[in-house]
Structures are given as structure tokens and as C-alpha cells.
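Appendix B, example 12.
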Amino acid sequence: MNPEIVETNLDDYKKLVESLKSDGFEMMVDLTVVDWFRKKEPRFEIIVQLLSTIHNARKTIKVFVNDEDLTIPSITQIYPSANFYEREAYDMFGIIFADHPDLTRILMPDDWQGYPLRKNYGSGRIPVQFKNAPKVD
């Protein structure tokens, strides 16, 4: 299989996904987010991978999300399997998928503050004390 990468903008994203579905890309394989913190602007890149078993082909769609509102159209109505991928992207990165049927946290508790996979998210520390080791302050 020869994957092809298609870069698009937010305005054309949903139309592109719909046209690829009608062209025979019947399966959404993956949807993920890349955080380009301090490397690129806009910071967040959404990557969607589609598969056509009829044509034995793959397409990768890349679209950047504006840092100010972090909103992108949901493709759950086109590919129902996008539901959980979009919820994970929301939960881990704070990306908002407009018109998603149930955009709630899926991995973290509902009252969790922040988005753990953002590169500027603080990494917490819990001091560990071993038996017979000197106390650490």
C-alpha cells in the first residue's frame, strides 16, 4: 500500500473527508493529535488516516487547528468510529470537535483539570520513600 498525505485547512476538512468516503475510503483507521509546542504555529495538528480496501489504498489527512479556539468539525457522522478517537483527542489535548454527539472525557476523571498530553502540561512528582533509606525532604 502506498499512503498518500493530503494537507487541508479547517474550512475544507469535512468536505474532503466526505469526498474521500464517497471515493471508496470506507474505513477511518486512526485519528490523533500532534502537539508542536514551540516548534510550529498553529501548535496542534490533527492527523486522520483512512483506508480503502476496494482500492488497496490509504490516505492521511493533516489539518492544523487554530490555537485560539481549538475547534474542528467532527467527522463522527461520516465515520462513526471517529467517536472515541475524537473524545480521546478532546480529553488529552483539549481539541473541541464541533457537533460531536457526546464530547466528554473518556480516559481522565470528569473533574480533571488540564490536558495531560500537551507538551506544556506539568509533570507531577510524588516523593518515594524506600525502607531503610535516608529521609528525603
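The longest helix spans residues 10-22. Helices lie at 10-22, 82-93.
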